[in-house]
Structures are given as C-alpha cells and as structure tokens.
Automatic annotation (TrEMBL):
Record-annotated membrane-spanning stretches: 285-307, 328-349, 361-383, 390-409, 421-444
InterPro entries found in the cross-reference section: GNT1/Glycosyltrans_8, Nucleotide-diphossugar_trans
Domain of life of the source: Eukaryota
Stored PANTHER family: GLYCOGENIN SUBFAMILY MEMBER
Keywords: Manganese, Membrane, Signal, Transmembrane, Transmembrane helix
Name this polypeptide is given: Glucuronosyltransferase PGSIP8
Signal peptide extent: 1-21
Length: 466
C-alpha cells in the first residue's frame, strides 16, 4: 500500500510539473522583437502610441517571441508601466549613447539618440532579435526572420539598406566593438544609426537573398532580406496597390517626413494607408485616451456657435454708430487686417488643438466643427457675409471627398485630380477673400464701425421726434 501510494504521488508529479514547465507563460523565449524609445523630440508621445500599437499587433499575430522595448532612462515611468502591465512588453532601461556625429554639417537633431538601437546587440539572452522601428505596420507574422543569420536587412534604396527592420544575432563582442567604433568616430554619412550600420556592414549588398529553410533551421552569415519585409509606403501611393515582386508582403514602413507618419489624424485621406494603421490601433489599444479631449472640444465649439449666434443682435447695436465721423484710414486698415487674421486663425487653431493621434474620422469631424465655430465668431463680430468666410471650409470638405474617392486607377490620376480640384477652387477662394474685404470696408465706412470713444451708445430722446 505504501509503494502504491508513492507511485501515485510520483505519477501525479510527472503529470503536473512537466505541463507547468512548458506553459507559454513560463517558457523562456529564444527570440525577440525589439523596438527603441527615447525622449527629447516634440513627437515623443506619438511614437509612444505607435510603439504600443505595433507591439499589440504583434501580440495579436501570436508571434513566437518576446516583445521588448529598449527605453532610455528618461522615458516616463507610467509609460514603461503601461507597456509592461497592459501590453505585455519587457522594458529594458538603458543609458543614452552619446552621438559623436552631432557636429556634422548634415546632422538632423531628431536622430541624436538613435544610436541607442545598438543596445539590441547586448540582448545576449536571445539567439536572434528582430529590431524594428515604431513606424512599421505588420500585415502577417514574420517569425521566419529568426532563421536568418548574424545580420540581415532590406534594401529599399538601391545602394543603402534600411534600418527600420533588421535581424541580428546578439553578441557582447560585437556590441563592445560598436561602442569602440563610436568612440573613434567611424565614418557615418548621416550621423544616425542608418549611416553607422551601413558603414559597419559595408558588404551587405553583395550577400545572397535570404530564403527561410523549410525545415526551420537557422542560417549563418549576413543576408539581404526580400523587399516584402520593408515595403516602402511610397510604392503603394504610386499605383494605389502593392506590386512587390519578391518575398511575402509582410511589413509596411513609412520612412517619410515626420508629419506624414500614419498615426496622425490628417494622414487619411491625404495618405490612404493612414486608415489601415488606425484600423490596427482601433483593434488594439483603442482611443480612450483621446476621447475626453475630443468630447470637451466638441462641446466647446457647439457652445461657441450658439453664443455667437444669440449675441449677434447685441453686436450689431454695439458696432453701429448712427452719427459717424470720418474715421482714420489707418484704423480701418488695421481692423481689416485683424478680421482677415481672425479668419485665418479660425482654420489653423483647431489643427493645433485636436489630439494628433486621434482617428482620422474623429479628427476631421472635430476640425470642421472647430473651424466653422471659430469662423462664426468672425462672422458675427465683424458682420461679414457667411458664404465668403466659409468658402475655404466648403473647399476643404470637397478636397476630402476628392482624396477619399476609391475609384482612381493609380496614384498619378489621384494626384492630378487633387491638383485639378485645387486649381478649380483657387478663384473661388480668392473671390471670397475680396468679398470679405469689400464687406469690411462697407461696414467700417457706412455704418461707423465702433463708435467714437466717449460717445453714448443710446440714441438721444429728441432724435425720436426727428
């Protein structure tokens, strides 16, 4: 009976403990997807949001790897906690690497801390790491990249590989050698990680193309990756479809100007792929962080429209002087200039107030509401006609429909259509500006806009007899 009891206990242990050891939560990964995060630019928050969306999208693809963010020590603690607790990301805190190329003539300050990307070689607990930038959009799982060699990257430029995604084998020896090359000032064409790595791996262009072995084994050496792992969004905008001849269409990258990144609300319909990025955000972290601000601004703009409309009769009485004297021409010119600047501000201020990473449909709706509400202040304060002031607003609405039209045969036709529409609208916008100036002139000259200082706003009683 004792032997039987002991055998039952051992059998139960063999059933329980192996299962616990191989559970996904406790199994140590051999591979990792790593991104970099640092502070010091006006767009730090936007890149933080982009990193979260990218990591969440990788998690939804069920990648067989750890998700890592190499974060500089000055990244806000609450951001790091959100990445750990809500997104399941491992945050590796590092000290910023000094960029020795800051004094180069062509150096761009926004790349000052991109050398932190070299810390990927220090992740020696992993056999392979895929280093990725935050402006990547993953369409499907790319775990086959972990079969690549010691260094693999994509040539989206005919002569220079792109460092928005590359595969590496971590090595303390390589990492120390890279730090040494930074100290001695190795040649770097652009002063950023792109130029440094291109100089460190100068012969990658002569390497063979990577094709993952069917049996899942890893290859050694350096390889070029197929273009499908770093599809430049510009290729899509030319034909409004993908035409990648080699490799799977797996990852889209946006190596464009910072203000044209896909996470900004104005990215769509200006750039069609922006909506695809926002669809990934909607399915991952959502927009709960921006919705309170959107609601507050919407209520504020609605209140402005109502108040200015109700106050218009009082404004008319205030601005009308039945006994005008000839006013100073300079004062009238200043008032006209102030009115035109107010109209311009009505179309620019909402852009600066809207949360930058909100969904494009919400962003454009809030912009149109905000610009119309601020324009109503000008209309009711300066007593100018409605249609001329709102002509740019109508033109913007029309341009959005022209850009969002889904029936263009290619990007060239789309671009020509947008330019043609702008050419068609330009005379109307100019005519509306002339109409506003003329209206202001009539208001100032004929109605004595703004009574003379010290003159009573009430009509004298004897004037009623007259």
């Amino acid at each position: 009976m004792r032997l039987g009891f002991l055998w039952a206990v051992l059998s139960a242990a063999l059933l329980v403990f192996p299962a616990t050891a191989i559970s996904p939560e406790s199994r140590k990964q051999k591979h990792a997807y790593a991104a970099m995060m640092y502070m010091g630019t006006p767009r730090d928050y936007e890149f933080y949001v982009a990193t979260r969306v990218m990591m969440r999208s990788l998690a939804k693809l069920k990648v067989d790897a750890d998700l890592i963010v190499i974060a500089s020590a000055d990244v806000p603690i609450r951001w790091a906690q959100t990445l750990r607790n809500e997104d399941g990301v491992k945050v590796v805190t590092v000290k910023n690497l000094k960029n020795p190329y800051e004094n180069q003539g062509n150096f761009n300050s926004r790349f000052k801390l991109t050398m932190n990307k070299l810390y990927a070689w220090s992740l020696v607990e992993y056999d392979r790491v895929v280093m990725i930038d935050s402006d990547n959009l993953f369409l499907q799982k790319t775990d086959e990249l972990f079969q690549c060699g010691q260094f693999c990257a994509v040539f989206i430029n005919p002569c220079i590989f792109h460092t928005g995604l590359f595969v590496l084998q971590p090595s303390k020896v390589v990492f120390k050698d890279m730090l040494h090359e930074l100290d001695v000032g190795r040649s770097n064409p652009d002063g950023a990680d792109q130029g440094f790595l291109a100089s460190y791996f100068p012969d990658l262009l002569d390497r063979p193309m990577f094709h993952p072995p069917a049996n899942g084994t890893k290859v050694d050496g350096s390889y070029r990756l197929p273009l499908g792992y770093q599809m430049d969004a510009s290729y899509f905008y030319l034909k409004l479809r993908w035409s990648i001849p080699c490799g799977p269409n797996s990852v889209i990258t946006f190596p464009s100007a910072p203000w044209l990144k896909p996470w900004y609300w104005w990215s769509w319909p200006v750039l069609p792929l922006g909506l695809q990025w926002h669809e990934q955000r909607r399915n991952t972290i959502g927009y709960s962080a921006e919705l309170p601000v959107v609601m507050i601004q919407s209520l504020m703009y609605l209140a402005i429209i109502i108040v200015t409309r109700l106050a218009r009769p009082s404004m008319s009485k205030l601005c009308y002087n039945p006994h005008p004297e000839k006013s100073i021409a300079f004062l009238h010119s200043m008032l006209k200039m102030a009115a035109m600047w107010c109209i311009l501000a009505a179309y620019l201020v909402p852009v600066m107030l809207i949360p930058r990473t909100v969904h494009p449909l919400l962003g454009w709706s809030l912009y149109l509401l905000g610009s119309s509400s601020l324009a109503s202040i000008v209309i009711n304060s300066f007593l100018v006609p409605v249609i001329p002031v709102l002509t740019p607003w109508i033109a913007i609405v029309g341009s959005l429909f022209v850009m969002a039209c889904p029936w263009y045969s290619n990007g060239v036709v789309r671009a020509l259509s947008v330019f043609g529409y702008a050419f068609f609208c330009a005379p109307f916008v100019w005519a509306s500006a002339v109409k506003v100036v003329t209206s202001l002139h009539l208001v100032f000259e004929r109605e004595g806009f703004f009574p003379r200082l010290g003159e009573s706003l009430q009509t004298p009683q004897f004037s009623k007899l007259y």
